[in-house]
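User: Hi! I'm a student and our assignment asks us to look at how structure tokens line up with a sequence. Could you show me two examples?

Assistant: Happy to help. In each example below, the sequence comes first and the structure tokens follow. Example one:
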Amino acid sequence: MDHVVELITVAAHPTAVVRAATTWHDFPSLWKGMLDEVWACVHAAGISRGCRNVMLYLDDVPTVEVGVELPESCRLTGRVVASALPAGRVAMTVHRGGYAGLASAHEAVVRWCAAHGQPLAGPRWEVYGPHRDDPAEVTTEVFHLLA
């Protein structure tokens, strides 16, 4: 799939997340439990809509934040904490299709930035569109913060 990359400036978006330092090998088996923990917390706080799922990769360890965008503040408990998606200039693309193809979206952004002299700051994240049963209808926004 060809990914169209664009430069935009984004505002910080408040999130509720569980943060972890893990390995790329272990992360695939951890993220769902982390996300379920966040959803249980925000549901208990009375929020059930308007929260897109997010994954923020702060570094290459990886230190990750898995959670949801928050449309309003709420009481957070346990390991779920308030955070925010970064603000600033980003290179972004929209990935259409199954999640297995997300790596190609990130690679497209990194290649585009290298080709256009746009240094990366490190943090990158994904914002997931609404759930669709058909993987071909799934959209995920991929962002890389610029230095």
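Example two works the same way, sequence first and then tokens:
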Amino acid sequence: MTWNHELKYYYVDCINKLTKMEAIIAKFSVEDYHKMIEAGLLIYRDVELINGLILEMSPEGTEHTYIGETLADYFRRLTQGIAWVREARPITLTQSEPEPDIAIVRLPHSLYRSHHPYPEDIYLLIEISHSTLKFDTSEKRNTYAAANIQDYWVVDVNNKQLIIYRSPINGLYKNETRLSLDSQVSPLAFPDLNIIVNEIFNR
């Protein structure tokens, strides 16, 4: 009887200690992630790897899809022969493998037969943000800054503005610019290309 009484308090003490412990999150490397994909563990799952965590991607609404498709097509015409435009395809960073809505990367296209684009291959990343603005301007922003992505744009669908992040230093972007519809901007890699913000939303 005494033993049971002591055991009861032992269990209670253990439970109290467990409730005070911080949650331990298992993180995966890019190599782990690739092995899961090859093994078919993530088949039919719409996911991406962000800083070691496998995250479900939000479904696209019609406006998100429309803007993404038309903007990607616009950039294809502007950069034909000088860059390759990828839509919702992976890029490989040190601890992440996100799938930005648009990635403008260096040629030749055959480079990506054996691997996804690395940071040094990337001219410009663009995320179309409708319901994901907070994530794209915090976690995604910091992920891209840490990878030294020089030019990152967020198309803010709800507020009809373009947010531009540049000059990554020590894992953070030094420069943030918010452009309204009547503004123009050029990608860092292609200063001769003038993008009118209004055309992003009203093409």
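Here is something you could point out in your write-up. The two ends are 80 Å apart (CA to CA).
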